[in-house]
Sequence to fold (747 residues):
Amino acid sequence: MTDGPTRVSGDLIIRDAHVLDPASGLDGIADVRLSDGRVAEVGENLRGTRRLDADGLHLFPGFVDVHAHWRTPGREDEETIETGSAAAAAGGFTSVVMMPNTDPIVDRPVVVSGLVRRVERESRVRAYVSAALHEGLEGERLTEMRLLKEAGAFCVSDDGLGTQSAGVLRNAMLYAKSAGLPVILHCEDHTLATGVVHDGVAAALAGMPGSPGSAEDVATATALVLATETGARVHVTHVSTALSAALVGFFKGRGDITADTTPHHLTLTDDLVGTLEGLYRVNPPLRPDADRLDVGKALKDGILDFVATDHAPHASEEKELPLEEAAPGFLGHETAFSALYTELVAKPGGRLSLSRLVETMACTPGRWVKGGAYGISPGAPADLTLVDLSEQWTVRAEALVSRSSNSPYLGRRLEGRVVGTMVGGELVYDGMGARFGARV
Amino acid sequence: MQIKNFLTLEEASRDELREVLDLARTYEAGHMVPTLAGKTVCLAFFEASTRTAVSFELAARRAGADVISLSEKGSAIQKGESLIDTVVTLDALGADAIVIRHPAAGAARLAARYTNAAIVNAGDGCGQHPTQALLDLHALSNSLGDFDELVGRKVAVVGDVLHSRVARSVIPAFRAAGMEVSLVAPDTLLPREAEAWGCPILPSVDDALDWGAEVLYTLRLQNERMTSRSPRVPSVAEYARYYGVAKRHLKPGVLVMHPGPVNRGVEISGDVVLANSSLVPDQVASGIAVRSAVLALAVSAAQKVAA
Fold:
């Protein structure tokens, strides 16, 4: 599914939801009328041919995930466009950017156009293709960015591997700027990132090879300096250290720079290294609590612009291994909102307001992707997320929609749950089945 | 004109350009006089060149000069003699003009400090290539009928401006001739401060034609711009698609130029290089008369300085 509303006959009224949209300043019980796949009206006692009772639920602008791996092409045993987009919908995401480190890598126009066609047929949510920043993600030769863009690429990225040469990165930024493509950067210096977990106390005690925070910080600093100099539109993804967040803060406003962090870096720490379980390997690695707290504060203060999940499915044979041998990566779509709501909003002393959480999961990434205002306002596509904040649930592998099960929250009890997701006015996820069906 | 050294066209005036081109035109009309009879022109080529070296040698001989070429193998240059020592030696041998090609920008200017002979810059690094720009103006003037016909016309300089000494000469030369100049290149092939030229920067040859370009001046793209050491262009396919001149661009009233040697299928598609609207052969042909004129004017100015 790509841009543009989906046609649904007749007007639908979402009745009595608590509408919360920081972008348009909505925060209260209201009715929302949808027409022709778009938001038509927000008000009281609205009328339409169909009705969806949502009293007791919250209605947010659809969440937007700028960082996902749907493993297609190449690893359809781990995820497909169908299952990845279903998992995204189950997590309340209505727009997703697909990363290019697949097999083959998305570095040629024909691969991009193939993916764009498949997205139209197979995706439940709007999906955007990120092409590779350099050929084979080898960090040597630039990709045909202008031809990639013509084929339908939305942005370019070095995700998964980073760009080791500052000279290549600088040229890649300049060329992307000429091509009119935003750049999403994975900041990691391979000469420093030689371990498998964060190089901290937990690694020392566990006897696990560590990668220091500097592996991220050095590369982040390089990227930010070059972004400032070239004027390219640069987005730094999965910021996980206090220093990298501070660097983003320093460079922000000096260039066209944005940054995100992930739900797992905001909610989990390297204490999990002590389990020695492959499930908890991720890149960048989980950091100590001090980093987690500073990264959270940077998100709260707007230094980090939004949350992106880095949804990275892996087959069980790649995760049920000693930590050192496991593939890095976590599922992200289905637990993102609940994990963040539980740990940062609902928890006593929670440091993030619900409004800021919605802003960082929907409005800001939405604006980044759509290039304009993103929220619940008349004329906007009806991309919406319904959440029941009172629901508590336990994450179970067998209940996950994703084709894989590598969620770091398995077995955890979370608060707040996405119960419905609409894209272009069409219900693409119905977590309450009968209830919605009865009322529609 | 009292120009002893042809080092750069950055400050060239319209009148100065016209004087060279007028003289070249009289030579072409068959009024070549052996201005340089008894004079010695030395070609000091510190960098490989075929067409420029041959063109200068013919130009000097047509004007009656004795020519010494230091570009051949076995010369002192091949043995690693320094620029300054070479120039001092040629000066001591009585050179009246020294034509210098060198891989470093500023080499010709430096050489001029060590000799009373006239210095003609035949291309210095990514700096200047003044005689190329002069012969380009000459070929274009001939094609349009007259030097004055250039006034108000639009020329797009397409390609690797960053590494091009030709670009650094033709941009000011076209402007001095009264033309409007735009640049067509990705940011990777432009100097960081390309805005300093004050020219519009356009994203493709198609955009240049929309802008109203009547002359597409294409530059050579070196293959090394695509390699891993400093990748600036992804592929020939992408470059040709946006920055290459193809048959579809050949509208009436649009001329195509290139300083050579051409990468067919990269800057210019094979069927365009020798098309009617291509001035590529005219550019080469203009070189001799223009360079004779440059040498004649420079030697004459050098004599006046000495006198």
